[in-house]
Amino acid sequence: MKPYLIIKRILDCFFASILIIITSPLMLAALILIKLSSTGPILFRQKRPGKHGEIFIVLKFRTMSLERDAAGDLLPDIERMTRVGSFLRKSSIDELPQLINVLKGEMSFIGPRPLLVQYLECYTPEQARRHEATPGISGWAQVNGRNAISWEEKFKYDVWYVDHISFVLDLKIILKTIKNVLIRDGINSSQNATMPVFKGTRIEN
User: pTM score, two decimals?
Assistant: First the structure.
């Protein structure tokens, strides 16, 4: 293990503890707004693959309603996004519960974003290398486009991060994350509330 990874874990625990205390009034406000604006659980919980593909439960504030169509299927994401949820997502407040994931060691502040379990079988061997690092609340792909870039571009950024992880790089990502949150840059792609489903990378002969 690289010496920095040990330091990174210590810093994660320290700053996650501090931020949970500092942001507790903000999280309480978000909790109340979600409860008042729509029915359903306050937290969104979903299985995600972590380091080495090990499954954990990621936590986020719920940003969508649970509305369904006549067949009982959930409506498209963009139709279910609530006004409160849109604000929480644009301000990245919806990510705050992941501080608990950081404390538990399931996530780090910086690393490739944890994606859906079903994507595991869709990755190329090179793309799967993104799981060599602990997933993060923010990452190199997030500060270079987030939902505004293609899946293939995201994975290239993720693997590049795995190969170049360092304190200086993490600090750079943190500063760029703060800047992007303040100017709300790269939050969503132009046509989707969330990224389209990843179905694998087409490899040309």
Answer: 0.84
